[in-house]
Input
Amino acid sequence: MKVSELAQKTGLAAINEYKDREIERVYISDMVSDLIASARTNSVVVTLQTHKSLIAAANLAGAAMIVIVNGRKPSEDVVALANRTGIGLFSYDLDSWAFAKKLVNLGFE
Amino acid sequence: MPEELLRKTFEIQGWDFENAGERSAEVTTILKDLDVDPNIILRVGVVAFEAEMNVVMYAGRATLTLVVTDDEIVVEVADEGPGIADIELAMQPGYSTASDEMREMGFGYGLGLPNIKKNSDVFSLQSEVGRGTRLHSIIRLISYG
Ligand SMILES: Nc1ncnc2c1ncn2[C@@H]1O[C@H](COP(=O)(O)OP(=O)(O)OP(=O)(O)O)[C@@H](O)[C@H]1O
Ligand SMILES: [Mg+2]
Output
């Protein structure tokens, strides 16, 4: 499933301009070192964190999409970094579990 | 002797969370331009990123040197920070002295150094309390298996 399709089906609006890559897996974490060690290419990363190092770590791990939960919004320079990397940046009003349920309903395992 | 293709040194400023992660991003861009295998780039990227973050959080100031030869990639990070008294303890997964503020940002999982070691073919960490820490990591481009 493409980033744009996943966003549309979960009702998310994009914060930045992104490359519309394929999403194959999900990783949920708020810890940077855990994310960098465990997230894989073509993943959607679901997290609470909004700072630059998180984007850098997700980018390194090959993530295609980041969903920031609990209604948190990234700052402008974080959005600028996401633009440069091509990662899709989204904000979701409810918590990680609520978003995880949506992903399960879309067929992610 | 392996032929040296590239050598570049970056300065890392401590406590500079604003630009944390930029040097490792630059390292991965350089390696992409050299057409290095994506799996190798990921491993070097993890090493550079975790070492960079440790300098930002604990050591104040450092240089990161990237050396690419025709058979390996070397990442060396030398800082002038407080040093590490017990390296064996620092290497243990889960051990961390991160502040509450750092933990809130998602650091302090105690996985940085173990991540670096896991992604290196050759790894060494030397430190002298009060003088600084030197981390040396080699990732081979050719496997001799
Ligand atoms: N360059 C350094 N100078 C001084 N102390 C360091 C340095 N690097 C690591 N340490 C010490 O070693 C501990 C473990 O480091 P490690 O990178 O494994 O975990 P962390 O940085 O605490 O958490 P994480 O990397 O998961 O965010 C740190 O908490 C710190 O006390
Ligand atoms: Mg660390």
The domain at 3-105 of chain A is CATH 3.40.1390.20 (Udp-n-acetylmuramoylalanyl-d-glutamate--2,6- Diaminopimelate Ligase; Chain: A, domain 1). The two ends of chain A are 13 Å apart (CA to CA).
